[in-house]
From TrEMBL, chain A:
PANTHER family: GLUTATHIONE S-TRANSFERASE U17, GLUTATHIONE S-TRANSFERASE, GST, SUPERFAMILY, GST DOMAIN CONTAINING. It catalyses: RX + glutathione = an S-substituted glutathione + a halide anion + H(+). This is glutathione transferase. One of its GO terms (biological process) is glutathione metabolic process. It comes from Phoenix dactylifera (Date palm). One of its GO terms (cellular component) is cytoplasm.
Automatic annotation (TrEMBL), chain B:
Gene3D superfamilies: 1.20.1050.10, Glutaredoxin. Pfam families: GST_C_2 (PF13410), GST_N (PF02798). This is Glutathione S-transferase. The gene is LOC103695844. InterPro entries: Glutathione-S-Trfase_C-like, Glutathione-S-Trfase_C_sf, Glutathione_S-Trfase, Glutathione_S-Trfase_N, GST_C_Tau, Omega/Tau-like, Thioredoxin-like_sf. It comes from Phoenix dactylifera.
Length: 308, 219
């Protein structure tokens, strides 16, 4: 079943058919902020559709339309071939896009159609077959935080540094990023998808407990500055910050205010700062769209909708 | 000021053993403190309050937790001698990817082999063989995952080889038969003292697992 990312006013206008494979691919999508159905384009930059979009040599079957995302006014490494396979709703994809934006790197965003894995994805990530995948000069890099470190390594000469300079600070960022992935983010999902009240209550408790720990971590890592990375967005900011969209969606779905200025003031203020940052603005999916998407996923997998 | 390095770990923990190998590769002097995993020390609980798990490296009083985080920390602090991670960004990403793969896959799958029986065990066994074959594929014709010398992925994976006998005995299969190149790699790694002096005897691991199964009521 082909799921559109968000119900456009006229669904037929968002899909076209690959003449060779007859597979549908997306040529337009609903802008996550304005709600308008727009041709695929960079959210806040000039449209530059690749002329090779439907070229069979460049892109395999069921490949969504690419969008060229420019690195902005900052001097970029021109001539680099950087592609990113991803989807708008994925916080893991957002991490890699944030890192690329921080470094001012031009890249081609290849939006995977939900429910269909492109040949390019299957070839580039045969182990997990998952997004995000960064393809740099034809070589794939997989796993979101590994990609972020790769971006930091390749474009090390371009500030800001994503990982801190000090080895102990780096260890703290890596430790907490693991925690976000292994423990905290799964509990966020579980709090809206749990099947029993008991399981839900446990997940909710874990989310709050995690936020308390992360509030302490922020105090330690930020050293009085605005981000976990100090003056600029760093590794742990990216790991945690890119899940804020889903956290807000989960707040809406459960009716629980997780990120509360009264309980975790540093994190609450950091969250606003993160979302307002240039590298992040335009990437954070709209809460209502995520809620809609989550409901679609739940219906698809026949899990009970959460009670409000 | 001399570095004071303490490692809270256990002789049988694959995650702790990899840190020991990394420290040995860097020729770092450290104090090893054996933790009783059924009666964790107050120090462990204080220094790793989030997970309450070993290993924990304590470097000049500051704790570093999570074995993969610890190994990268060791590589970044002790820059004398061989680099455990490659210098090239793509190779580094590749090394991190496969180390992460080992972390995600082997422990949980291997545990299901020795903890379960019947169909569940058979399924876990099949999965484990698949995982080891994937790793064997990644190794290819190289002497080590790190290329010519022992590297990050080698250090992260090789401690599990002490568990192979346990998996094989409970699961009723031969890893050597399924993945001969991987076993050849294990033998090659053991030619290095940093590995051979650290890895526990496979029969001791098996005996300990039998005891653990009894204790957990899984017989």
């Amino acid at each position: 079943m082909m799921l559109s990312l968000a119900p456009p006013s006229n669904p037929s206008r968002s899909l076209a058919t690959n003449p060779r494979t007859k597979a549908p691919f997306q040529i337009a999508k609903t802008h996550p902020i304005s709600g308008l159905l727009l041709p695929i384009r960079s959210m806040h930059r000039e449209l530059k559709l690749s002329s090779s979009i439907t070229s069979e040599k460049r892109l395999p079957t069921a490949q969504a339309v690419s969008e060229r995302v420019e690195g902005g006014t900052r001097m970029t490494r021109g001539g680099e071939d950087v592609k990113l396979l991803g989807r708008w709703a994925s916080p893991l994809v957002m991490r890699t896009r944030t890192a690329l934006n921080l470094k001012g790197v031009d890249y081609e965003f290849l939006e995977e159609v939900f429910g269909v894995k492109s040949e390019l994805l299957l070839e580039s990530n045969p182990v997990y077959k998952k997004i995000p995948v960064l393809i740099h000069e034809g070589k794939p890099v997989c796993e979101s935080m590994i990609i972020v470190q790769y971006i930091d390594d390749v474009w090390a000469a371009t500030p800001p540094a994503i990982l801190p300079a000090d080895p102990y600070d780096r260890a703290l960022h890596r430790f907490w990023a693991h925690y976000v992935d292994d423990k905290w983010f799964p509990s966020v999902f579980a709090s809206s998808r749990a099947q029993t009240e008991e399981a839900r209550a446990e997940a909710v408790e874990q989310v709050f407990a995690g936020l308390k720990l992360l509030e302490e971590a922020f105090q330690k890592c930020s050293k009085g500055k605005g981000f976990f990375g100090g003056d600029t967005i760093g590794y742990l900011d990216i790991a945690l910050g890119c899940s804020l969209g889903w956290l807000k969606a989960t707040e809406k779905m459960t009716g629980i205010k997780f990120l509360d200025e009264a309980k975790t003031p540093l994190l609450a203020q950091w969250a606003e700062r993160f979302c307002a940052n240039d590298a992040v603005r335009g990437l954070m999916p709209e809460t209502d769209k995520l809620v809609e998407f989550a409901k679609m996923l739940q219906a698809k997998f026949k899990t009970a909708a959460p009670a409000k | 000021m001399a570095d004071k390095v303490i490692l809270l770990s256990s002789w049988v923990s694959a995650f702790g053993l990899r840190v020991q190998i990394a420290l040995a590769e860097k020729e770092v002097d450290y104090e090893f403190r054996e933790e009783n995993l059924f009666d964790k020390s107050p120090l462990l609980l204080e220094l790793n309050p989030v997970h309450k798990k070993i290993p924990v490296l304590i470097h000049n009083g500051k704790p570093v937790c999570e074995s993969s985080v610890i190994i990268q920390y060791i590589d970044e602090v002790w820059t004398n001698g061989p680099s455990l991670l490659p210098q090239d960004p793509l190779q580094r990403a590749n090394a991190r990817f496969w180390a992460d793969f080992v972390d995600k896959m082997i422990y949980q799958c291997g545990s299901r082999v020795w903890k379960n029986k019947g169909d569940a065990q058979a399924a876990a066994k099949k999965e484990l063989i698949g995982i080891l074959k994937q790793l064997e594929g990644e190794l290819g014709e190289k002497p080590f995952f790190g290329g010519e010398t022992l590297g990050y992925v080698d250090i992260v994976l090789v401690p599990f080889s002490s568990w192979f006998y346990t998996y094989e005995t409970f699961g009723g299969f031969s890893i050597e038969k399924e993945c001969p190149k991987l076993l050849a790699w294990v033998r090659r790694c053991n030619e290095r003292e940093s590995v051979s002096k650290v890895l526990p005897d496979r029969h001791k691991v098996y005996e300990r697992t039998c005891g653990l199964k009894k204790r957990l009521g899984l017989e």
